[in-house]
Amino acid sequence: MKKNILISTLLFSVLCLNVFAQTKSYPFEVVKTGKGKQAIIFIPGFASSGEVWNETKTNFEKDFTCYTLTMAGFAGVQPQGVITFENWKTEIAHYIKANKIEKPIIIGHSMGGGLALAIAADYPELISKIVVVDALPSLAALMDPSFKSKENNDCSPMITQMAGMSDSQFYDMQKMGIPRLVENTSKQDLIISWSVKSDRKTFAEMYCDFSNTDLRNKISTIKCPALILLESYFVNLKPAIEEQYKNLKTANLQYADKGLHFIMYDDTEWYLQQLNNFIKSK
């Protein structure tokens, strides 16, 4: 009788674990495509959809299994959970472990590049390579090298401001800003549409939190190879860029020949060549 009770208890425990594993929710949606033993995880930038990687994925889906994320609250994905850079970093790492994704390559754009750096720094044995597309360890430090993160950063004023904007005001703000981020005019409306479909609270909280993030010291623990692709303008700020990345000993910094922040749209041929050379190298 005791033996039967023990077996039943064990079976119930296993069932609970399986159900939990299946119902565990993450602060992002995932689209899985392609086939291959090696996996690539694509993380889009602030307020962007995973669709930003569509053209990139086409080059790799034949040989790699691709996991494309869209973060919760962005580009029409339902907002949820704790909206912090730290939480998103931790949850992506948990997803990799829970799904037994063996030594993936992480490619991140902008904020997604920051997440790639943070994951590789805090979980150095988890990742095989990272590609950072136009992101810095600390964006705020580019204007103020003495910048230090605030321990209790108050994001409520920004949330109030964003929430108080009408849809047309928010759209106009995005429409005004996007031409500074991408030269390819055929992509501007698409990027704007992702922003306007984003949850305002998530938009404000993550912008505020990411602006307060400083990874300059943390990246010293990264062990894997790191390709850093930077927009063309940043070549004029080389000393400041190199100072930010000085603690990342594996960094390979490359500057685009043309275009703005969305390098994948503005200097596509150069960008894909850089990715191919780095990802397919042993």
Please tell me about this protein's structure.
By secondary structure, this protein is α/β, with parallel strands linked by helices. It has helices at 2-23, 54-58, 85-98, 111-122, 140-143, 156-163, 167-177, 185-196, 200-211, 238-244, 263-266, 268-279, and strands spanning 28-34, 39-43, 65-71, 105-109, 129-133, 226-230, 251-255. The protein has a single domain, classed as Alpha/Beta hydrolase fold, catalytic domain (Rossmann fold, 3-Layer(aba) Sandwich), CATH 3.40.50.1820. Strands 1-3-2-4-5-6-7 form a seven-stranded mixed β-sheet, with helices on both faces. Helix 4 links the parallel strand 4 (105-109) and strand 5. The longest helix is centred in the first third of the chain and has 22 residues, at 2-23. Mean pLDDT is 92; it is low at 5-22.
CATH topology: Rossmann fold
Q: If strands are numbered along the chain, what order do they take across the biggest sheet?
A: 1-3-2-4-5-6-7
Low-pLDDT parts are 5-22
Kindly provide the name of the CATH class.
Alpha Beta
CATH architecture identity? 3-Layer(aba) Sandwich
List the helices and strands and how they pair.
Layout: H1 2-23, E1 28-34, E2 39-43, H2 54-58, E3 65-71, H3 85-98, E4 105-109, H4 111-122, E5 129-133, H5 140-143, H6 156-163, H7 167-177, H8 185-196, H9 200-211, E6 226-230, H10 238-244, E7 251-255, H11 263-266, H12 268-279
Summarize the structure.
This protein is of the alpha/beta class.
Q: Which terms would index this structure?
A:
282 residues, globular, 12 helices, Rossmann fold, alpha/beta, 7 strands, 7-stranded mixed sheet
